[in-house]
Structures are given as structure tokens and as C-alpha cells.
């Protein structure tokens, strides 16, 4: 009995800690969601709302701010909300993620299964690219894009994200493929499969956990980028984060906090969705490669 | 043709190598060169100053604050995320109901940029609007949380928001590693009468070494690169009390038209990174052998 | 979705082509006016241009009081792909003109007589080697005291004209349970107050210590005195001011939480937004001791050196931005006064009319200076050296003497 008691107290404590931690992690999200659903007087504590705080649930629920942020909030001269920029970001992500993940997969394959003299040095040099602070590449990259006639184009922005994504995707795939037995490759060769066939027929089908990891990682990074988007995109290709920044960062005028928060939530939904849906596979992908010793 | 075929694997690496050689190493070299010039608003290569800019950076009061803050922030951020991440991972590994939901809650901050959450964080930390105001309205009159307004304490607010964002990722790393541990060793130890904490201390945590390494390196480089975090939360203030090397670099390069000094500070950040990263790369490469 | 994908594939396929440079009949404009009255004012300019047959491609980037936009602008110029026009403050116009990236607007300027209607101090920033390179759209005055009329009436106060009166009023306001002075907590806001104090010590000190960065003046008694007054002003702020945006501080004055705020005339926008009239529910007066002098900052549209075929549209834009009607509409929305001195003052409020009259007076008296806190006193690197010390002083218990010393060291190191 006593042991049972102790056990259930222990379990209780474990759950308590986990739930408290969850509360901490949810704080900003709760504040954002609540604020986005409030009306302005309730947010600023106007008449009748003196006891309202950032963490109190809305008393007057209003979805108006979401509609405004999506399709009619004014950003500079255009009053079209975030809608148009959403598709710009999706396009950017589709190209930037698929290219960087594909290159990373091939790199990882070569660096783990087609070893050659100096391969680990090459891998090491690629890896160092993970760590470069993006602010220092801004001006040289601008010059390079200018020389390549890619300034202000979607292609240019994709190229930038591919450059700084390759180190990460290569790391993920290489660490994953190292754990795949070499016998599998040898057997493929015995059957006469070539370089590309071994990759596409044998490796790609078993690589989905690490594809998930690489895609989630790249998707998040590219989607959330502001610096490159603000500096290298043209007027028609500017990504969502630049627009969100323009919506939220206002220097004058009464801030429509509910619209700001709704806009932020809209901008965050795709990446949150990816994490919620892909989270389980993310963990599995990490288990199967990225952190193996 | 035969040459091409035999070299096919290496050739497939070529595009990535070229991209990285230019966009990483080429630009680092260029940054170093700029740090030796008298570039102000734009890069200029007509006047050379040797290492003067490095001396100017080191004698600047803002850099002093940045370095000091980096030591505080780096240690607490890396240490904090490791402790929180490992703690949560161990607790989650106790066959918890609703593990999936909890895991998602811990992990979701990784999905968000500080452009998205910055305003919410500013509010939460602000004594007039945030937690302090909320708790006082709810009747806890003496509750106080106003670190963000105090020069000596504001950097800890940056640590809190940073830990909020990255702890979940560290948790995932450790949870993945815990799930990968051979369970037979653990049951054997249990048979021998080892207690729960002893098993963790002597068997499980040592087995997490690779995860520790990955986590330390990932968090270490994030702590050096942290920029959005500070800008969203404090814009470096109060005064410049929350300046970090990354904000120093951006500020000097772009706001103050001291590009050469900005480049010099960037080079020093890179040196710091190299010191941190190269041992990791070395071990990464060795284990691949 | 399919539509966007095809468009994207198309865009990617054609990615070897340079991003469509502004067509002959449109202007691409980089700016950071994304909200409120400023955005509305920009929209007026866009409509004006449309009526002249010139299209508008918007490249707004908000954040950091223009910092984000200026960073992106540098990337654009380095890539060889500058916008047609970019919003800039005076010193930045000078920097870009020095680098030789700006075009020549003399054709428009001469035809429309800009030289006769723009005050010489503003012209000094809008021209480079005698050539017009940027169109000034407004004149802001950063040294105002804003006060809640209700509180002042209740306590029987009038707008202070000396620092003694100012502190007496602040004491009375505090005694009545309000915050004495609403403060915002960013370096530029602290510097806005400090530079006004320096000007109040004497316009000659402002000229010597700030415009000329004279080391003797910087270490002088006057500067020590300015920091002493600044310390007293800071004493009336509430403890939670660090990091606060200026418009939230203005809101404190509007809703009676605080009695006064020292802030530029852009604060009027907040007052108007709240449905009040500047000069009535929210009182305005220049910072004590600064009447007769005038600090200014001006927003310019700097015109980049673009190809022959884009110049017609660019000239159209310069002409539209300098038109009397646009300058009136824009400045009514923004709280500033027109950069042209020939715009009728009738539609402006009391505070605006005061500014317009004082501008003429200060121009004649030689007490019209560029504002340090707002990019018209010193180049960016030197300006930052001043702001470093001012913000450090405001956020620590540094003594006024130590601050003056630090200022000499900091500015001396940056020159």
C-alpha cells in the first residue's frame, strides 16, 4: 500500500511538473490567441474592461481581426492584408526546400557510401557553413546576386536559401546514411545497380524519417526568414515575414494589436502545423540518425 | 567519358561545394578583408588600416558589454536549455499519458520566429502590461516581475525567451537518444538492484553523450547567432545593457556606417565559433570512420 | 494554387532575367511609412502620381525607425538594382550623394523654383555640390512638451516656459497622483530630450557641442548642466519606462495617466487619432528655454541615378512630392510642417502654426539647427557616439561630470 501511495505521489509530481512546464511554453501563444480575438477597448483596458489582462480570455469574442489581417489590413499603400504574401512564401518554400533537401540527400549519400580521399575534410568544410552568421553575408551576397542578374528575383532568394541550407541537410542525411549497413549498397552493386539506381531504389525509400527532419528544418528556417527576404526579394516576390514585419512594426498611429496578433498567428500557422503533424516523425527521424553516436 | 563515370560521385558534390565555397568561405574571406579597410557605408578597398579596427572594437564600451553579456547569456542559455531539455525528456520517458500532446507543446516554439512572438514577449515581460500586471489584477498585489526595465537584469529576460524557444528542441534530441538506448542493459541493472536515479546517473546519461554533444553545439552556435531574440525583446536596451556580439555587429555595419568595425567584430565572432565548432567537427568526422 | 505555382515556375524559369527594372512609367519607392497617417499620406502621393500617369511600386520595410529599410537599401544598391526613390533622413542623403549614387533633379527644381521656397538649412541636405538630389517633404520639430489639459486645468498650471516652472509643474502633477513625465525607453527618445535641453542651455552651445562637435564645448560646464537637468527630468518618469515605444508614452498623456511628455511634433498624430485636438485637450509648447530656436529633421525622397528611360517618372515623382497640395495634405496627416515655406498655414493647428512662424524667425536669427537624435546633426557613426553616452547616462547612475567626460571620449573616438 505504502509503495503504491509513494508511486502515485511520484506520478503526480511528474505530471505536475510536465503540466507546469507546458503552461510556461504556452504563455506567449495564449497571449497571442486571446489578444487576436479581443476588441481594442478590451486590449487597452478601456471603460468596462479595467480588469482585463493579457492572459484573461476574451469577454467579447471577435474574429474580425483575423479577417482584417488576412485580406484587408493596410500595409503602406496596399490594403490587402497578408493574403498575397502568403503565396509568395509558399512558392519560395517549395523551391528552396526541395532543392536544398535534394542536394543534401545526394551529398549525404556520396559522403557516407562513396568514400574517397579527403571526403571527411569536405564534409567538415560543408558543416562549418551551418555556423555562419547571416548578417555578415548580406552585402557580399547582394553583390553576387547582382553579378548573376538575380537581384530582386525569386530565383535569387531561392539560391540564397539553398546555399545556407545545404550544410544542414547534408549533415542530416550523411549522419543517417552512415547508420545504413554498407552491405545493402554492396548487394545493390552486385545486382548491377549504378550510382543513381542504388540511391533511388535502395536508399530513398528507407530515408523518409530523415527526409521529414530535413524538410521540417528547412521549411521552418526559410519560412521564418526576414533578413534575406527583406534584402533580396523584389516587389512581387516579398515573403510573408517581410509583410508581417511591416504590419507589426509601426512607428505611428494607434496600433491595432488584435490585427497584429492575428497576422502573427496566420504567419505562424504553416510552421506550427508542420511541427504538429510532423512532430512524431521528427522525433523518429532524430532517433534514427541525427543523434546516434 | 570513363573519367566522368568513375568520378560521378565526386562530381555530384560539385554544385554544393561551389555554392558553399563561395557563399561561406568566399564571403568570410571578404569580411576579413573589409575588416582591414576603412569601409564606412559600403565596402571600400582604397584605404588600409591593418588591425586598427580590431583595436577600436576592443576599446569600445559597447563591445565590452556585448562580450560580458555573451558570457552570461551563452552559459545560462546553453546550460538552461540542456537542463530543461534533459529534465523534460526524462520525465516524458516515464510512459506518460498524452505524451504526444505535451511533446508538441514543448516543441512548437521552434516553429516560430521572433517576428511572430516578439510583441507577445515584450508584453509578457513589461511590468505595465504583462505578467506583473496580470497577477496584480488577479489579487497577488506584491507580485513583481520587471527585469526587462532594469539594466542588470534585462539580459536574463533574453535568456528566458531564448530557453523558451530552444528547450523543446533539446528535449527532442534527448528523448530521441533515450529511446535509442538498449533497454536490456537497463533491465539488467535493475535486476542487480540499482535504484532509478543510479541507473540514470551511471548508465543512461553517459549513453546520451552524442546527444549532449549535438545539443551543446547546436545551442552554442545559436547563442552566438542570436539576434532576432534581442531585437524583438529589448532592442539591446535598456541603454545598451543587452547588447550581444551579433547585435553589435549589425548595429555597426548597418546603422552606424562603421562597416569595417562591424566586419572586425564578425571576424572575432567567427573565431569564437571556430574554437567551439572545430572540436565537434573533428569528433563528428572520427566517428564516421 | 495552380495559378500561383505556374507563376512561380515562370518566375524561376525567367530567373536569369534581371528583376523587372522599374518601367518607364512607374517608380519603385522604398520607405518605412507603413501605418497610420504616414501610410495615408503616402497613399495620397501614390494617387497624385497615378493622376499624372505614373505607377507606384511599393517597397515598404518597417522596423527600427528606418534601420531595416536602410539595410535593405544597401543590399539593393550593392546589387546594382537601386529603387527609383528612397525615403531618407538628411545625413543619409548626404552619405548616398557622397558615394555618387543619387541622380540630378535640377531640371525639376529649377523649373519649379525649389530654391526660393525651401529653407536654406533644409536645402543643405537636399542638394549636393549645388545639385538637387532629394525632395524634402516635411519639417519636424522634435523639441515639444505635450501636456494633458485636464490635469493642468485641475491643478491650475500653465505651460512651463522655464525649467523651474517645468519641475514645479511636474511636482504638482506627481503630488496629484499622476506620472510627472511620460518617457519612452529607446536611445533616440532619450537623446530627443537631451538635445532639447542642450538647446535650452543656449543655442550657441548646441551649435558648438553638437553641430561642430567641438571638444571644448563638449566638456564644458554647459554640457554638465544639460546632464544635470536631464537627470532631474528622468526623475519624474515611472520606473517601467525602459523599452516603451514613444506612442505609448503619448497615450499616457492623452488618457491622463501622465501629465507631460517631451517628444517631437509627430506625437500630434496620436492626439488626432484619439479624436482630440492638439492645443485644446492636449497642450503644446516648445521645451522650456528653446523658443526662438528651432531644431529640425526632414524626410526626403532621395532619387537614385536611374537609367534615362526611368527619369521621366522619377521627375514626376519629385514634382508631385514638392507640390503645395501634397505638402499640405501630407503634413496635416503627419504632424509636421511643410518643407515649402509658401504653403498656407490656415489649415494647421495652433502647434503647427507656431512651428511655421518660429521656423521663419529662427532662420533669420541663425538658430535653426539639424536635430542630432534624428539624423540631421552628425553622420551616423558620430551621432551614435553621442547616443551611446546619453542612453548610458539615462540608464545608470552616472554623474553629469562623468557623462560630459564620456562624451568627449566617445565622440572624439568616432570622429
Question: Any overview of this molecule?
Answer:
- The complex is a heterotrimer of chains A (293), B (289) and C (415).
- Chain A is an all-alpha fold and 293 residues long.
- Chain A has helices at 2-36, 40-43, 64-72, 83-113, 119-128, 138-147, 154-178, 182-190, 195-206, 208-224, 227-232, 240-248, 257-290.
- Chain A folds into two domains: 2-62, no CATH class; 83-290, Orthogonal Bundle (MetI-like fold).
- Chain A is 72% helix and 0% strand.
- Chain B has a single domain (61-288), classed as MetI-like (MetI-like fold, Orthogonal Bundle).
- Chain B contains 14 helices and no strands.
- In chain B, α2 packs antiparallel against α14, α5 (99-107) crosses α8 and α11 runs antiparallel to α14.
- Chain C has 415 residues and is of the alpha/beta class.
- Chain C is globular.
- Chain C has helices at 2-13, 36-51, 67-78, 90-98, 106-112, 114-117, 120-126, 149-154, 163-175, 187-201, 203-211, 215-218, 221-234, 246-254, 267-273, 311-321, 324-334, 350-365, 380-394, 400-414; strands at 26-31, 55-60, 85-89, 127-128, 131-132, 134-136, 144-148, 179-182, 258-263, 282-286, 294-296, 299-303, 368-370.
- Chain C has two domains: 23-140 and 297-354, Periplasmic binding protein-like II (D-Maltodextrin-Binding Protein, domain 2, 3-Layer(aba) Sandwich); 144-295 and 372-414, Periplasmic binding protein-like II (D-Maltodextrin-Binding Protein, domain 2).
- The longest helix of chain C is centred in the N-terminal third of the chain and has 16 residues, at 36-51.
- In chain C, α10 (187-201) packs across α11 (203-211).
- In chain C, the strands form four sheets. Chain C has a five-stranded mixed sheet with strand order 2-1-3-12-6, with helices on both faces.
- Chains A and B meet through α1, α4, α5, α6 and α7 of A and α2, α4, α5, α6 and α7 of B.
Helix/strand/pairing category of chain B: mainly alpha
Can you give the helix content of chain B as a percent range? over 70%
CATH class of chain B: Mainly Alpha
Shape by Cα distribution of chain C: globular
Work out the strand percent of chain B.
under 5%
CATH superfamily (homologous) name of the largest domain in chain C: Periplasmic binding protein-like II
Q: Are there runs of chain B of 5+ residues with pLDDT below 50, and where?
A: none
Compute the number of helices of chain C.
Answer: 20
Question: In percent, how much strand structure appears in the residues of chain C?
Answer: 5-15%
Amino acid at each position: 500500500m505504502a509503495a503504491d501511495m509513494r508511486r502515485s505521489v511520484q506520478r503526480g509530481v511528474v505530471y505536475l511538473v510536465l503540466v507546469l512546464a507546458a503552461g510556461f511554453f504556452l504563455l506567449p501563444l495564449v497571449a497571442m490567441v486571446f489578444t487576436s480575438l479581443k476588441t481594442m477597448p478590451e486590449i487597452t483596458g478601456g471603460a468596462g474592461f479595467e480588469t482585463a489582462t493579457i492572459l484573461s480570455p476574451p469577454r467579447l469574442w471577435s474574429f474580425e481581426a483575423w479577417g482584417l489581417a488576412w485580406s484587408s489590413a493596410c500595409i503602406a499603400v496596399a490594403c490587402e492584408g497578408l493574403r498575397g504574401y502568403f503565396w509568395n512564401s509558399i512558392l519560395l518554400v517549395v523551391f528552396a526546400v526541395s532543392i536544398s533537401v535534394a542536394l543534401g540527400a545526394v551529398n549525404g549519400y556520396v559522403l557516407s557510401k562513396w568514400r574517397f580521399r579527403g571526403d571527411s575534410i569536405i564534409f567538415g568544410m560543408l558543416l562549418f557553413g551551418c555556423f555562419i552568421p547571416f548578417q555578415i553575408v548580406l552585402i557580399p551576397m547582394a553583390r553576387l546576386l547582382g553579378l548573376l542578374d538575380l537581384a530582386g528575383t525569386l530565383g535569387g532568394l531561392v539560391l540564397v536559401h539553398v546555399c545556407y541550407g545545404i550544410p544542414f541537410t547534408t549533415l542530416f542525411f550523411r549522419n543517417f546514411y552512415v547508420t545504413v549497413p554498407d552491405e545493402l549498397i554492396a548487394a545493390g552493386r552486385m545486382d548491377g545497380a549504378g550510382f543513381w539506381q542504388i540511391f533511388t531504389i535502395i536508399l530513398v525509400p528507407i530515408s523518409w524519417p530523415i527526409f521529414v527532419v530535413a524538410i521540417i528544418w528547412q521549411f521552418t528556417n526559410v519560412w521564418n526568414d526576414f533578413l534575406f527576404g527583406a534584402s533580396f526579394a523584389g516587389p512581387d516576390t516579398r515573403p510573408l515575414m517581410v509583410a508581417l514585419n511591416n504590419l507589426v512594426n509601426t512607428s505611428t498611429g494607434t496600433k491595432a494589436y488584435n490585427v497584429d496578433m492575428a497576422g502573427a498567428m496566420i504567419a505562424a500557422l504553416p510552421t506550427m502545423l508542420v511541427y504538429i503533424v510532423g512532430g512524431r516523425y521528427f522525433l523518429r527521424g532524430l532517433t534514427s540518425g541525427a543523434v546516434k553516436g | 567519358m570513363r573519367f566522368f563515370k568513375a568520378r560521378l560521385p565526386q562530381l555530384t558534390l560539385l554544385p554544393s561545394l561551389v555554392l558553399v565555397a563561395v557563399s561561406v568561405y568566399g564571403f568570410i574571406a571578404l569580411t576579413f578583408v573589409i575588416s582591414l579597410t576603412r569601409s564606412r557605408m559600403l565596402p571600400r578597398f582604397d584605404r588600409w588600416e591593418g588591425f586598427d579596427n580590431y583595436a577600436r572594437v576592443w576599446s569600445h564600451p559597447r563591445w565590452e558589454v556585448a562580450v560580458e553579456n555573451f558570457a552570461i547569456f551563452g552559459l545560462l542559455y546553453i546550460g538552461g536549455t540542456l537542463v530543461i531539455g534533459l529534465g523534460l525528456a526524462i520525465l516524458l520517458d516515464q510512459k506518460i499519458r498524452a505524451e504526444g500532446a505535451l511533446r508538441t507543446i514543448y516543441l512548437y516554439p521552434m516553429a516560430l520566429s521572433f517576428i511572430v512572438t516578439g510583441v507577445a514577449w515584450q508584453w509578457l515581460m513589461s511590468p505595465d502590461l504583462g505578467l506583473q500586471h496580470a497577477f496584480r489584477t488577479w489579487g497577488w498585489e506584491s507580485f513583481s516581475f520587471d527585469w526587462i526595465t532594469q539594466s542588470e537584469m534585462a539580459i536574463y529576460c533574453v535568456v528566458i525567451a531564448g530557453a523558451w524557444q530552444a528547450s523543446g528542441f533539446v528535449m527532442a534530441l534527448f528523448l530521441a537518444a533515450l529511446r535509442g538506448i538498449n533497454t536490456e542493459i537497463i533491465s539488467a541493472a535493475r535486476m542487480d538492484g540499482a535504484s532509478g536515479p543510479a541507473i540514470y546517473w551511471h548508465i543512461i546519461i553517459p549513453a546520451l553523450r552524442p546527444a549532449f554533444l549535438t545539443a551543446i553545439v547546436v545551442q552554442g552556435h545559436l547563442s552566438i547567432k542570436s539576434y532576432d531574440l534581442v531585437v524583438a525583446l529589448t532592442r539591446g536596451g535598456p541603454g545598451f545593457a543587452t547588447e550581444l556580439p551579433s547585435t553589435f555587429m549589425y548595429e555597426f555595419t548597418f546603422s552606424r556606417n562603421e562597416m569595417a568595425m562591424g566586419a572586425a567584430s564578425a571576424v572575432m565572432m567567427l573565431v569564437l565559433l571556430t574554437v567551439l565548432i572545430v572540436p565537434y567537427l573533428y569528433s563528428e568526422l572520427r566517428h564516421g570512420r | 494554387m495552380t495559378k500561383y505555382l505556374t507563376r512561380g515556375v515562370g518566375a524561376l524559369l525567367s530567373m536569369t532575367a534581371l528583376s523587372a527594372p522599374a518601367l518607364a512609367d512607374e517608380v519603385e519607392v522604398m520607405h518605412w511609412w507603413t501605418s497610420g497617417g504616414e501610410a495615408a499620406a503616402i497613399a495620397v502621393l501614390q494617387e497624385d502620381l497615378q493622376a499624372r500617369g505614373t505607377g507606384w511600386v511599393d517597397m515598404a520595410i518597417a522596423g527600427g525607425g528606418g534601420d531595416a529599410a536602410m539595410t535593405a537599401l544597401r543590399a539593393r544598391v550593392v546589387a546594382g538594382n537601386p529603387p527609383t526613390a528612397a525615403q531618407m533622413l538628411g545625413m543619409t542623403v548626404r552619405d548616398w550623394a557622397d558615394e555618387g549614387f543619387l541622380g540630378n533633379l535640377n531640371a525639376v527644381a529649377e523649373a519649379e523654383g525649389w530654391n526660393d521656397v525651401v529653407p536654406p538649412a533644409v536645402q543643405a541636405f537636399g542638394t549636393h555640390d549645388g545639385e538637387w538630389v532629394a525632395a524634402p517633404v516635411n519639417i519636424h520639430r522634435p523639441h515639444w512638451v505635450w501636456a494633458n489639459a485636464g490635469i493642468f486645468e485641475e491643478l491650475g498650471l500653465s505651460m512651463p516656459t522655464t525649467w523651474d516652472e517645468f519641475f514645479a509643474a511636474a511636482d504638482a502633477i506627481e503630488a496629484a497622483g499622476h506620472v510627472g513625465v511620460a518617457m519612452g525607453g529607446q536611445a533616440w527618445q532619450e537623446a530627443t530630450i537631451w538635445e532639447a535641453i542642450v538647446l535650452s542651455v543656449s543655442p550657441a552651445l548646441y551649435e558648438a557641442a553638437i553641430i561642430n562637435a567641438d571638444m571644448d564645448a563638449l566638456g564644458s560646464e554647459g554640457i554638465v548642466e544639460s546632464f544635470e537637468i536631464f537627470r532631474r527630468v528622468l526623475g519624474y518618469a515611472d520606473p517601467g519606462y525602459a523599452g516603451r515605444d514613444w506612442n505609448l508614452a503619448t497615450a499616457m498623456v492623452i488618457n491622463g495617466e501622465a501629465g507631460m511628455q517631451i517628444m517631437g511634433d509627430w506625437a500630434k498624430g496620436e492626439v488626432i487619432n484619439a479624436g482630440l485636438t492638439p492645443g485644446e485637450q492636449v497642450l503644446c509648447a516648445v521645451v522650456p528655454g528653446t523658443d526662438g530656436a528651432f531644431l529640425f529633421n526632414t524626410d526626403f525622397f532621395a532619387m537614385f541615378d536611374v537609367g534615362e528611360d526611368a527619369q521621366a517618372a522619377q521627375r514626376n515623382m519629385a514634382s508631385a512630392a514638392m507640390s503645395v497640395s501634397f505638402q499640405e495634405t501630407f503634413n496635416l496627416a503627419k504632424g509636421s510642417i511643410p518643407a515649402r515655406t509658401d504653403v498656407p498655414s490656415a489649415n494647421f493647428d495652433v502647434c503647427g502654426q507656431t512651428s511655421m512662424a518660429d521656423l521663419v524667425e529662427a532662420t533669420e536669427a541663425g538658430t535653426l539647427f539639424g536635430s542630432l537624435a534624428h539624423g540631421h546633426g552628425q553622420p551616423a557613426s558620430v551621432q551614435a557616439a553621442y547616443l551611446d553616452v546619453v542612453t548610458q547616462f539615462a540608464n545608470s547612475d552616472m554623474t553629469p561630470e562623468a557623462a560630459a567626460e564620456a562624451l568627449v571620449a566617445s565622440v572624439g573616438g568616432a570622429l
